[in-house]
Design brief:
Layout lengths: L4 H6 L2 H12 L7 H8 L3 H13 L8
Length: 63
């Protein structure tokens, strides 16, 4: 069976979950740890994916 279309389009299941979560909870701010808990992914995976999204300016780091 093939991977879902969104996973193929965006590169990883975790990235899709992060983007969906952020879209549904906009404009609230979350830490990587909070996102990991809410989407049930490993914190390290979430941090790596968020960094990739930050590099392409889809997400911003809150100061």
């Amino acid at each position: 069976m093939s991977k879902p279309i969104l996973d193929n389009l965006f590169g990883s299941k975790a990235r899709v979950k992060i983007l969906k979560f952020l879209y549904r909870n906009f404009p609230a701010d979350f830490s990587a740890r909070e996102i990991a808990q809410r989407i049930q992914e490993l914190p390290q995976v979430v941090r790596e994916e968020i960094e990739l999204l930050r590099q392409i300016t889809i997400v911003k780091r809150k100061k």
